[in-house]
Design a protein that fits this description.
mainly alpha, MetI-like fold, 2 domains, globular, ABC transporter permease, membrane
Length: 271
């Protein structure tokens, strides 16, 4: 029976192959054609790094890429700080009034369409007469990504043994010291994973940024979108390939950080 259950049928292998091809074949084709020497994206002209060189000589694209990296780094840092504090409040403050309302409002961006979020933020900035630019996009991305950080950190905090902090307080630490010396090192990999997830989401966003950006503050996804409407250039393939590589590296690091956090929690758990 165990051999029969563990065996993979040809139908399952075929379905898995088709699913993987549907998800990743377009990305593989894009990466291959980023090394195409031809100016026509549908005609193969041999292997070349020409379009990567074109990107690094394109001042407008470089400015947009630098803007995206700045927005992603700042918004991810702020979202990680606020999301970690929110996770601590939700896990450690089980009985405070308004917890259900706070939790619902915190997780609302997870299910709310980005168009609605972007439009509401635009109306807010217009009502405040705020000049749209770097900080409006950063605030919008912080609002979007904070809930994801909260989910990651909250799941890690919920699995920790509360008696570790209690033992530290019995030995003379106050609650803040117990958290900083005992709990924070244990959840640090989860915080790092949340930061990288927030960074990736901010780097990829185009819908909310299109509502909140202003003149001279276009991010890389918006710049790519405006270029693609006039026709796909081989340079776009090179840019997308570099973004895919960066996101893949961040995903691997975040996965390793999550596994490290889980292994630390298991080793710290009482027998």
């Amino acid at each position: 029976m165990a051999q029969r259950v563990g065996r993979i049928s040809p139908f399952n292998i075929t379905a898995l192959a088709l699913g993987m091809a549907f998800l990743y074949l377009p990305i593989v084709i894009l990466i291959i054609y980023s090394f195409n020497a031809s100016r026509l994206v549908t005609v193969w002209g041999g292997w070349s790094l020409r379009w990567y060189h074109e990107f690094f000589n394109d001042r407008a694209m470089l400015d947009a890429a630098w803007m995206s990296l700045r927005v992603a780094a700042v918004s991810a840092t702020i979202a990680t700080l606020l999301g970690t504090l929110a996770a601590v409040g939700l896990v450690r403050g089980e009985r405070f009034k308004g917890r259900a309302l706070f939790s619902g409002m915190l997780y609302a961006p997870l299910v709310m369409p980005e168009v609605i979020s972007g439009l509401s933020l635009l109306l807010l900035f217009v009502a405040l007469n705020a000049e749209r630019g770097f900080w409006t996009v950063t605030i919008a991305h912080t609002t979007l990504t904070m809930c994801f950080v909260t989910v990651v950190v909250q799941s890690r905090l919920a699995s920790l043994d509360r008696s570790l902090e209690e033992a530290a307080m019995d030995l003379g630490c106050n609650p803040v010291q117990a958290f900083l010396r005992v709990t924070l090192p244990l959840i640090l990999p989860a915080i790092a994973a949340g930061w990288m997830l927030a960074f990736t989401l901010s780097l990829d966003d185009v819908v909310i940024a299109s509502f909140t950006t202003g003149p001279g503050s276009a991010t890389l996804p918006i710049r790519i979108y405006s270029e693609v409407r006039l026709g796909v250039k081989p340079e776009i393939n090179a840019i997308c390939t570099m973004v895919i590589a960066l996101i893949a590296v961040l995903i691997v690091i975040a996965s390793l950080a999550s596994k490290l956090s889980s292994s630390q929690g298991e080793s710290a758990a009482p027998p």
